[in-house]
Design goal:
This is Two-component sensor response regulator. Residues 168-267 form the HTH araC/xylS-type domain. One of its GO terms (molecular function) is DNA-binding transcription factor activity. Keywords: DNA-binding, Transcription, Transcription regulation. Pfam families: AraC_binding (PF02311), HTH_18 (PF12833). This protein has helices at residues 95-102, 115-118, 120-123, 125-128, 133-177, 184-191, 195-206, 210-228, 234-240, 246-257, 261-266, and strands at residues 2-5, 15-24, 28-30, 37-44, 47-51, 54-58, 63-66, 72-76, 84-91, 107-110. 48% of the residues lie in helices and 21% in strands. It is built from eleven helices and ten strands. By secondary structure, the chain is an alpha+beta fold. The longest helix is centred in the middle third of the chain and has 45 residues, at 133-177. Helix 1 runs parallel beside helix 5. The protein has a six-stranded antiparallel beta sheet, with helices on one face. The chain has a four-stranded antiparallel beta sheet with strand order 3-8-5-6, with no helix packed on it. The chain has two domains: 2-157, Jelly Rolls; 212-266, Arc Repressor Mutant, subunit A (Orthogonal Bundle), CATH 1.10.10.60. A hairpin with a 2-residue loop joins strand 5 and strand 6 (54-58).
């Protein structure tokens, strides 16, 4: 059981208020919230956190970030079993601006923290258990890094959700139907999102729009046919991979490969 309190007597941009791990967690009720920003994670056993009208289960290797001043209560999910936690609290003159960037108003539940988040309290304990001004200034860099880790973790969760709901269904649909005409509206029917939103998510993930991806996929298939079926006419290959206009097929192929399909065949 390791715990350290480190609230300085003067203002700092960021400072560690407390840090601990292997803590046998007793029930805790804070009707007025905590005076600092609070990261809490479950090490062994399971806890229940009540905050903002929600009951959140913290299983081992799950965590929650609580904004300061937000009322909450937490305790072991089973009164007859121990709940071991790790935690880290911080504040400072720049802390609220950092948390605003994080987008947290009351709390942020993190069901799958990265390894760097999970090991933060144990790895930084000795460093944060120093009280000199120089040490506190060094700690501020690590606190900033901690908030960025939370931001990255939350962004990854959003990306994984969007990848599952939007980008992968689009790619699968294009893979199966690239030889036919495909519109943005048709893809929106697959994802059940608006064209504007799905295109923005897809472009953020792949740096191209769904229809640009479709064109590149068709050109990839055309290249495969040019290599495997050199005797086929250019028009036939273009039609098979989904280009309704042969001149458009030739234009797009040359744009990507710097040569026409016919010139490409000569290099085979």
């Amino acid at each position: 059981m390791r715990i350290a309190f480190n609230k300085p007597t003067q203002d700092f941009p960021l400072y560690c208020d407390s840090i601990g791990y292997q803590w046998q967690q007793d029930p805790m009720t804070r009707k007025n919230g905590y005076y600092a920003f609070h990261w809490l994670q479950s090490e062994m056993g399971t806890g229940i956190v009540e905050v903002a009208g929600q009951k959140i289960t913290l299983a081992p290797n799950q965590g929650i970030f609580l904004a300061k001043g937000v009322p909450h209560h937490y305790e072991s999910s089973d009164p007859n079993k121990d709940w071991q936690t790790a935690f880290f609290t911080f504040d400072g003159t720049l802390a609220q601006d950092l948390v605003n960037y994080l987008g947290v108003t009351d709390y942020l539940y993190v069901p799958s923290p990265s390894a760097e988040l999970l090991t933060f309290p144990t790895e930084k304990f000795e460093q944060f258990n120093q009280h000199s001004i120089a040490a506190i200034l060094d700690q501020s860099t690590e606190i900033y890094r901690f908030v960025m880790l939370l931001k990255q973790n939350d962004a990854l969760k959003a990306f994984n959700r969007q990848n599952k709901e939007i980008t992968m269904p689009i790619i699968e649909y294009i893979t199966q139907h690239y030889m036919k005409p495909i519109t943005n509206e048709e893809l929106a029917g697959v994802t059940q999102y608006s064209v504007t939103y799905q295109n923005r998510v897809f472009k953020k993930a792949y740096n191209i729009t769904p229809l640009q991806y479709l064109t590149e996929y068709r050109l990839q298939k055309a290249r495969e046919l040019l290599l495997s079926k050199p005797e086929w006419e250019i028009k036939r290959i273009g039609t098979i991979v989904g280009f309704q206009d042969t001149s458009q097929f030739i234009h797009q192929f040359k744009r990507i490969h710097k040569v026409t399909p016919q010139q490409f065949k000569k290099f085979i």
